[in-house]
Write a structure and sequence with these properties.
The protein is of the alpha+beta class. The chain has 10 helices and 8 strands.
């Protein structure tokens, strides 16, 4: 993964200000995977996207992720650190985007859902049926082809289990024991939202730095952004000493 420059990151942030969370997540994924066509990213397995975003977070802001969570038992705030690099490695994308289920004469091939599939299915009156229809590659019973709507519930359950096993990174759930009362609290870790919050803070701080340096030295924004973070910080310290 190439480290994105400050100007490009600011452009991503600016574009994301007008987007809903799903649009911001896609912008971040484009930043993480510039080697992949933008139209392909929304249909990649969800776990692959999560791994990409954890890797991007590591590249931009380092390994350590600070998380704050309220205890479900006593309500106390819990603060702890997570390792972005460890998550990126453990959530590496699935080896194959197609899972196969064979049961009682059924032979089903199913594509691991991507974000676009989940989003479209959620808008349907029957999300499960919509997801089956979108991601079903083929289904046959005793050699005869059948449609998604003909799959019995036990086979649908087996498909769901196979998908979860093949793409465990699609659902990153934390299970934290409270140091005060010992109760376990489960919470989903939304890396896209977490990373966007960090990017938003970084961008606003950087623009303040640009304002201060432009005011003091008369430099343009591109000239200031072309400086390394270390040199920008040094010039800011000089401004404070004046």
């Amino acid at each position: 993964m190439a480290i994105t420059g400050a100007a490009d990151l600011l452009a991503t942030w600016e574009a994301g200000l007008a987007e809903a969370p799903t649009g911001r997540a896609l912008l971040l994924h484009r930043t993480a995977r510039p080697d992949v066509d933008a139209t392909t990213l929304p249909v990649l397995p969800v776990g692959e996207r999560e791994a990409d975003l954890f890797a991007l977070r590591r590249a931009l802001f380092g390994e350590r992720m600070q998380v704050r969570l309220g205890c479900a038992g006593c309500g106390e705030d819990m603060e702890f650190d997570l390792d972005a690099g460890e998550f990126a490695r453990s959530l590496s994308g699935p080896d194959d985007s197609i899972v196969r289920v064979e049961q009682d004469g059924w032979d089903v091939r199913f594509r691991l859902p991507g974000v676009a599939d989940l989003t479209a299915a959620a808008r349907s009156a029957d999300p499960r049926a919509a997801l089956l229809a979108r991601c079903l590659v083929s289904a046959a019973r005793d050699g005869a082809d059948v449609a998604a709507g003909e799959l019995p519930v036990p086979v649908q359950i087996r498909i769901a289990e196979a998908v979860e096993a093949a793409d465990p990174g699609a659902d990153v759930t934390l299970n934290i024991a409270c140091p005060e009362c010992g109760a376990a609290t489960r919470a989903e870790l939304d890396i896209a939202s977490y990373l966007w919050t960090e990017l938003d803070t970084w961008a606003r701080d950087l623009l303040l730095d640009v304002h201060l340096l432009a005011t003091s030295y008369g430099w343009s924004e591109p000239e200031i952004l072309a400086l390394s973070p270390l040199r920008r910080r040094y010039y800011l310290e000089l401004c404070a000493d004046v």
